[in-house]
Amino acid sequence: MKKAFTLFLLLAMLxxxxxxxxxxxxxxxxMDLDAAQLEVLWPMLExxxxxxxxxxxxxxxxxxxxxxxxxxxxxxxxxxxDIVGVYIYEVRRxxxxxxxxxxxxxxxxxxxxxxxxxxxDSLTWLCGMETTLRQQEGQPDRWVPYSLRLSxxxxxxxxxxxxxxxFELAVPDFxxxxxxxxxxxxxxxxxxxxxxxxxxxxxxxxxxxxxVMQQLAQQNPVYVFSRQFDEQTGAVLAHAxxxxxxxxxxxxxxxxxxxRFPVEREREYSLYFEFLxxxxxxxxxxxx
Length: 288
Fold this sequence. Notes:
- 18% of the residues lie in helices and 42% in strands.
- By secondary structure, it is α+β, with helices and mostly antiparallel strands.
- It has two domains: 154 residues, 3-Layer(aba) Sandwich (Protein Transport Mog1p, Chain A); 116 residues, no CATH class.
- The strands form four sheets. Strands 11-12-13-17-16-15-14 form a seven-stranded antiparallel β-sheet, sandwiched between helices. It has a five-stranded antiparallel β-sheet with strand order 4-8-7-6-5, with helices on one face. Strands 1-18-10-9 form a four-stranded antiparallel β-sheet.
- Strand 5 and strand 6 form a beta hairpin.
- It is elongated and about 70 Å long.
């Protein structure tokens, strides 16, 4: 029996949904604010991100954000202008009751839309952002920026469709194909060999998720694993500092996608890893 599988990864959860032209985004983490509370903060945070990005400022330490930027943050862009926005994927309360927000900063070209609804070619991911908000004195429902830090710029300008012998994948555009990794697979490298991406197929009688985890653990003993299943397939997700892997096991085949990168660029490459897994399409997997 043969069947096509489209794999969509949301952190450790796999969802089978139709492919879409909407731009991909990172999965949401812990959110200690509800949607209505977050919506109130969004214009200010986008304004700060835009000001920092355009001025080439990588960080403002606690209490150092220039007051005029708070006024600039309230100014909406003119219709048709490119927008620098933030996709907030985690909000946590700190022990001192401040808010610590994690986000990806993006540029949206010529339109105003949510990230989830924007056409993929209208969006470029620029960098990561971490910011701390504190309650304004005497106004517990009002939050003001206290610190802001942007990561190094993200390398990818867009995702490039790649067609292998038996699979499809959307690859960050800076990766260059180096050659086959194994029969049916492929290996990509980033400029300067700072990162590698491999896709390989393994075939063995009685292939199981446990066997794949053992194989991966031999490559990297500090991998932490999680597993997901449906009626016919099993999937394994493995993560370690600077090393992320995803494997689909079906019948006697296992397809393994592995991304290795500098540890200090975890934020950037973990985003690419989600995009890679979300776009991973295997043409024919022998089941049962």
